[in-house]
């Protein structure tokens, strides 16, 4: 009985520890939230911007350096203008998207420093990028659009290097 009680106590402690550690990890949605706050603070627009509710991230990449440096998360996303001023919280339900509002297409790099839950402990750099073609336009232009991910071209560094590095890019126009 005592052994069973100890095993249950250890299992409960392990579950609590796992849950506590999971809450402290910095994920892509945290990177999106911190990048949105960074953009709203630095933009010259009067209104706040927020990401769309459906599919906010257009691209994600993670860089884990082997030298012990902090992990870098790179995200590509779109922000849309809301009716709320920058001084208000853009996450409120009242902050709906502005009709005919401006969209910002961004590529941001986030590096968590100490405590990822605090916005000031994350280094954020952002740059504007051009908008991507919507998938509906690709469908109408190209009858082979479902197979576009299968059709790749690659660029490789010459074989004189000890390792062969290849960069794959998707063909959009066939």
Automatic annotation (TrEMBL):
Check the UniProt entry and state the signal peptide residues, or none: 1-22
> One GO biological process from the UniProt record?
defense response
* Residue runs in coiled coils: none
The record's section on SUPFAM superfamilies has:
Cystatin/monellin
Question: Would the keyword tRNA processing turn up in this protein's UniProt record?
Answer: no
Kindly give the InterPro entries that the UniProt entry links to this protein. Cathelicidin-like (IPR001894), Cystatin_sf (IPR046350)
Q: Which keywords does UniProt give here?
A: Disulfide bond, Secreted, Signal
Say where the protein is mainly found.
Answer: secreted
- GO cellular component terms, semicolon-separated: extracellular space
Where does the record say this protein resides? Answer: Secreted
Task: Provide the family line.
Answer: Belongs to the cathelicidin family.
**Protein name (record):** Cathelicidin-2-like
Q: What is the lineage of its organism?
A: Eukaryota, Metazoa, Chordata, Craniata, Vertebrata
């Amino acid at each position: 009985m005592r052994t069973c009680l100890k095993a249950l106590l250890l299992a409960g402690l392990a579950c609590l520890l796992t849950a506590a550690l999971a809450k402290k990890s910095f994920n892509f949605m945290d990177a999106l939230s911190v990048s949105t706050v960074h953009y709203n603070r630095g933009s010259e627009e009067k209104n706040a911007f927020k990401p769309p509710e459906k599919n906010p991230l257009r691209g994600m990449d993670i860089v884990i350096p082997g030298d012990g440096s902090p992990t870098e998360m790179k995200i590509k996303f779109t922000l849309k203008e809301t009716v709320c001023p920058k001084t208000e919280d853009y996450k409120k339900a009242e902050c709906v998207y502005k009709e005919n509002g401006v969209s910002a297409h961004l590529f941001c790099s986030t590096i968590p420093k100490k405590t990822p839950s605090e916005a000031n402990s994350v280094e954020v750099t952002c740059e504007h990028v051009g908008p991507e073609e919507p998938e509906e336009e690709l469908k109408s232009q190209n009858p082979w659009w479902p197979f576009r991910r299968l059709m790749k071209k690659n660029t490789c560094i010459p074989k004189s290097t000890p390792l062969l590095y290849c960069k794959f890019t998707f063909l959009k126009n066939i």
